[in-house]
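Protein: Branched-chain amino acid transport system ATP-binding protein
Species: Rhodospira trueperi
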Amino acid sequence: MTSPLLEVEGLVKTFGGVTASAELSFTVLPGEVHALIGPNGAGKTTAVAQIAGELRPDAGRVLFDGRDITALPVHRRALLGLGRSFQITSVLGAFSVLDNVALAVQAHAGHSFRFLGDARRDRRLRDPARATLARLGLEDDAERPAAILSHGGRRTLELAMALAGRPRLLLLDEPMAGMGAEDSARMVEVLRALKGEVAMLLVEHDMDVVFALADRITVLDGGRVLASGAPDEVRADPRVVAAYLGEEAVA
Ligand SMILES: Nc1ncnc2c1ncn2[C@@H]1O[C@H](COP(=O)(O)OP(=O)(O)OP(=O)(O)O)[C@@H](O)[C@H]1O
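Structure follows.
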């Protein structure tokens, strides 16, 4: 059996009287797209924040590639291959799209590159940055200032910057938020093209997107796992239908 890339073990997180993670456990396998769904307040964002290292759990562990990363800060997790937009670098509007990705390559490269070369000139940084932009369909915008990108373009740039670190797992918390139908459909295609190459933990409310992309789905409710499995199993699970998906799921 394939060993999980990410193991979430018994996470507990409370805010005052609210239990946002209630002994939450699930795994993400290498290369899979794993969707985390559930009603508002189910604890999805809190779970992702604990995996990314932005929030410290009250109890439980997060293992990445078999290693306990529960106590590691965000940047150390990123260097191990846990990628998230805004994690190390954020978009600099006055810099070109290509500069932004080259800076992200540099930031993720660790000590070997950190003091070496200028991200606005060094080909060791610019070539992989250009290749990433090409993969995401942003090559025509490479020389334009990041500030003038559309909302969808900016979200795609953030994804390019996350990918620049060659993550093994991407944490995607509502990547299509605020996008129109066209940009959203383009983002689905971009993510679909990355399938198999990088594992993704995808928090998404749009069930069409979830069912288009996910290999497995974990449904949260009240901070715990209500159901977990292949999309067809989850869609047919009566507890899920009752708690969340509603009539449309069985139609
Ligand atoms: N910083 C905080 N302080 C207090 N309560 C919080 C905090 N963060 C989250 N909560 C509470 O924890 C619960 C889980 O919130 P969380 O944002 O993780 O849910 P979610 O599934 O991501 O919801 P949504 O789909 O609405 O984004 C909610 O009841 C929320 O109000």
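Remarks: Residues 105 and 164 are 5 Å apart (CA to CA).
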